[in-house]
Design brief:
By secondary structure, the chain is mainly beta. It folds into 2 domains: 12-163, Jelly Rolls (Sandwich); 177-311, Sandwich (Jelly Rolls), CATH 2.60.120.260. Helix content is 0%, strand content 47%. It is built from no helices and 23 strands. The chain has strands at 12-18, 25-27, 41-43, 61-64, 70-77, 79-86, 96-101, 104-106, 110-112, 122-126, 132-141, 153-163, 180-186, 193-195, 199-205, 208-213, 219-225, 228-235, 241-246, 252-255, 262-269, 277-286, 299-311. The strands form 4 sheets. Strands 1, 3, 4, 6, 9, 10 and 12 form a 7-stranded antiparallel beta sheet that branches. Strands 13, 15, 16, 18, 21 and 23 form a 6-stranded antiparallel beta sheet that branches. A hairpin with a 5-residue loop joins β19 (241-246) and β20. It is globular, with a radius of gyration of 20 Å. The two termini are 35 Å apart.
Length: 316
């Protein structure tokens, strides 16, 4: 099943955020040794509604049964879909989930939950939103703690629709949607300035190479032109925090600390003005603050993808 959010207009594009991405905010996040009743934990990807574990297998998943457990993501654009699986309960202790868009609870969203393949199920999807900054939040409601110890809700990924800012071009420029071409390309390694004690590790994971750092203060700098950017990397058991700053804004601190090692998107941003140059900085910030016992400062940067806008073959 294809992702239901589609970039049908020439000024639209999609970005997929895996459940392991530090861009997703999970509450509460606790040690998996405490079990499902304590918060969100990584799941092996077995369908809660299927007796055949293979038929329900997905990639990485986050799972919970906790009343009030939530997931949120902010982005700039016009649409979003959340993929995963919910196990409905029909007795007196009914468990449900709710969706809030931009802080307002809503039931005005499409969903489907009838596939044995978790990654095909849609927990919520919105399209044709007004262009701008949005936040979507999913919350599980399980007030009677029904099915204690059983996965009720699993999240596989979030797909957002980005859009070229309507007022992104210089005053007096007349451009129609049909004259624009939106493309996403990987930034060459030599366009990124790695400052400090970085190492290049080819095939660190099968078919993937990374620039890695364990030294606090190491930084990667990039100047680019585009309307969106994504950075892939590794989330690992020895990862720490990193600060990301775009165009001189206050740095955003994220953590790649994970309960297992996985490739994921460690940063993304949409809604950038494609008519100007942007300046990105990623800095190794040392051990993660989300775990008081964490001592790792490992940071791995993979590919950097930039979405650009062209008109009649000429970049704006």
């Amino acid at each position: 099943m294809a992702d239901p959010v589609s970039a049908s207009e020439s000024t639209s594009f999609t970005i997929t955020i895996d459940d392991t991405s530090p861009s997703l905010s999970y509450q509460p996040v606790l040690d998996p040794s405490l079990g499902l009743s304590a918060g969100w934990i990584p799941s092996p990807g077995v369908s809660a509604s299927s007796s055949d574990s293979q038929s329900g297998q997905a990639g990485s998943l986050h799972a919970t049964e906790v009343d009030g457990a939530s997931l949120s993501l902010s982005w700039n654009g016009t649409g979003v879909s959340l993929f995963g699986e919910f196990l409905p309960v029909d007795d007196d202790g009914t468990a449900t989930y709710s969706i809030a868009l931009d802080g307002t609870p809503t039931t005005n969203f499409a969903f489907s939950n009838d596939s044995p393949v978790i990654s095909d199920n849609v927990l919520a999807t919105f399209s044709n939103l007004s262009y701008g900054e949005h936040t979507v939040e999913l919350t599980l409601h399980n007030p009677n703690s029904v099915f204690d110890g059983t996965v009720l809700l699993q999240v596989d990924r979030v797909v957002v629709i980005g859009e070229v800012p309507p007022q992104s071009f210089a005053s007096g420029t007349s451009l129609s949607n049909s004259s624009l071409v939106v493309t996403t390309q990987t930034v060459p390694d030599d366009a990124i300035s790695f400052q400090g004690q970085w190492s290049f590790q080819p095939d660190l994971t099968p078919g993937q190479s990374f620039h890695t750092s364990t030294n606090v203060g190491d930084r990667a700098l990039l100047t680019f032109n585009g309307t969106a950017i994504t950075i892939s990397g590794l989330a690992t058991t020895s990862s720490g925090s990193y600060n990301v700053s775009l165009d001189g804004e206050v740095p955003q601190t994220l953590s790649a600390l994970s309960q297992y090692n996985t490739s994921t998107e460690i940063f993304f941003r949409t809604g950038l003005d494609p008519s100007v140059m942007h300046h990105l900085s990623v800095v190794n910030a040392g051990p993660s603050a989300i775990d008081s016992d964490s001592v790792g400062s490992f940071l791995a940067l993979g590919s950097v993808n930039v979405t650009t806008v062209e008109s009649n073959g000429v970049s704006p």
